[in-house]
Structures are given as structure tokens and as C-alpha cells.
TrEMBL record:
CDD domains tied to this protein: ABC_TM1139_LivF_branched
One Gene Ontology molecular-function label: ATP hydrolysis activity
Domain of life: Bacteria
Species the sequence originates in: Pseudaquabacterium pictum
Name of the protein: ABC transporter ATP-binding protein
Domain ABC transporter: 6-239
Length: 245
């Protein structure tokens, strides 16, 4: 049985006067990919932001490696080994690819201090980053910017990576590249919590799944079970994975 790296229990989140999360419960097993699925507005992005402390939980418990994250500041959460790739990607467009990578590496003050073997491995996943190493990040294509955002998250080993809709707006060939890259991370037992609307990616990568609706988790289980049951897909998500092959 896998150990749960991250556990959310009864998590509520308020943003101003709005009550967004209503008792979210699910766990992320260590060494696998957990998909967080649901219709638009279900609360998926808010869940990731709550885990990172960007929007504090108003009730409930979040535990990472057995330690509470509730009330912990975002920089301190990051130092515990959690990386976050927001839907907006979060890259610095005026800086070069190289400068973006150095800023993401806590142990490097300049490019020469980056782990060269790990950097070569990242280049094997995303060759475009090596080609455009000295280019301003703002001049990259949308797909290349997403590659950079993911590369920043893995420039150093992380215990957990939170990724919010990485395939949004990207061409199928770029999505396939991301699936291959995430598949390599999965083979290396990197734990990932992935919010995604592309169900080809969800089916290809997911080990476990939590489905959200109206700020609650309405289903938890194996991704393979959901992928193989079109009735469940229709009931929980309003569509069929089979239509997204």
C-alpha cells in the first residue's frame, strides 16, 4: 500500500465573502499521479492554491508528510519540497530562460551552480529550452512557456508537484510532449497532483483520481476505473473520456 504524501480533511476555503471549498477530503499517494478533475468552477484551482497557502483554509486540516500545512506561509511550504505550476505559468517574461531556471533553484545563485546532470535531463524532456536558453521567456511560444514553467518546478528534486491545467490552449503535439515528460517524472516516482481538462492526459497519466463539484469531492478512486466507465464519466463530469481519445 502506498503512503499518502498529502492529505486534505474537511478543508473549507473562503475568499472574501465567498465560500469556495466546502469540506474537501482526498489524499495524494506517494510516488504516483493523482488527477483532480471536475467541471469549470468546481474548486480545483482553489484547492491547489489552498494547499500552497496562497488562500488560507478557514477550516479543516492539510497534512504533508504527516505535518500540518495549515497557517504555514507559502515560502515555507515551498521549502518543504512542494512546487506549484499555476495555470498562469508564473514565469518571468522579461528574464531569459536561464535566469528563470536559476531563480527557481534554491541552491543556485547562478547558472554554473545548477546541477548539470539534472539540467541535461530537463533538456532531454524539453529540448526547446536548451535551444532558447538565452532568449527572453516572453518570446517563447505558449507551449514552450509551459515547458519552462514545468522545468522550473523540477529544476531541483521536489517531493510533490502541483500542476494546474498544463495543456490548456496548447496544440496536440505539445500536449503529447507534456504527457511524455510527466510520464518520465512518474517513472522516477515523482508525486504529482494534476488538475487537467484534457482527458487523454488524465487517462494516460493518472493513478488515482478525485472529482470535484461545487467545492466538494464527489468521487475518489482509481483513474483506470473512471476511464473505463462511461456512465460514471457522464454522471460525474458530464462527458465521456471516450470522446477525447
Amino acid at each position: 500500500m502506498s503512503t499518502n504524501l498529502l492529505e486534505l480533511t474537511g478543508v473549507h476555503t473562503h475568499i472574501g465573502a465567498y465560500h469556495i471549498l466546502h469540506g474537501v477530503d482526498f489524499a495524494v499517494p506517494e510516488g504516483g499521479v493523482t488527477m483532480l478533475l471536475g467541471r469549470n468552477g468546481a474548486g480545483k484551482s482553489t484547492t491547489l492554491r489552498t494547499i500552497m497557502g496562497l488562500w488560507p483554509a478557514s477550516q479543516g486540516e492539510l497534512r504533508f508528510q504527516g505535518r500540518s500545512l495549515k497557517g504555514v506561509a507559502t515560502p515555507d511550504i515551498a521549502t518543504q519540497g512542494i512546487a506549484y505550476v499555476p495555470e498562469s505559468m508564473g514565469i518571468f517574461t522579461d528574464l531569459s530562460v536561464k535566469e528563470n531556471m536559476v531563480l527557481a533553484a534554491r541552491k543556485a545563485r547562478n547558472a554554473s551552480e545548477l546541477d548539470s546532470q539534472r539540467l541535461d535531463w530537463i533538456f532531454s524532456l524539453f529540448p526547446a529550452l536548451k535551444k532558447f536558453w538565452l532568449y527572453p521567456a516572453g518570446k517563447l511560444s505558449g507551449g514552450q512557456k509551459q515547458m519552462l514553467a514545468v522545468a522550473r518546478a523540477i529544476v531541483e528534486p521536489r517531493a510533490l508537484i502541483l500542476i494546474d491545467e498544463p495543456s490548456k490552449g496548447l496544440a496536440p503535439s505539445i500536449i503529447r510532449n507534456l504527457i511524455d515528460a510527466f510520464g518520465e517524472l512518474k517513472r522516477q516516482k515523482t508525486t504529482i497532483l494534476l488538475v487537467e481538462q484534457n482527458f487523454m492526459m488524465a487517462k494516460a497519466l493518472g493513478d488515482t483520481v478525485a472529482v470535484m463539484d461545487n467545492g466538494r469531492v464527489v468521487h475518489r478512486g482509481a483513474m483506470a476505473e473512471l476511464a473505463g466507465d462511461e456512465g460514471m464519466q457522464q454522471r460525474l463530469l458530464g462527458l465521456s473520456l471516450g470522446a477525447h481519445q
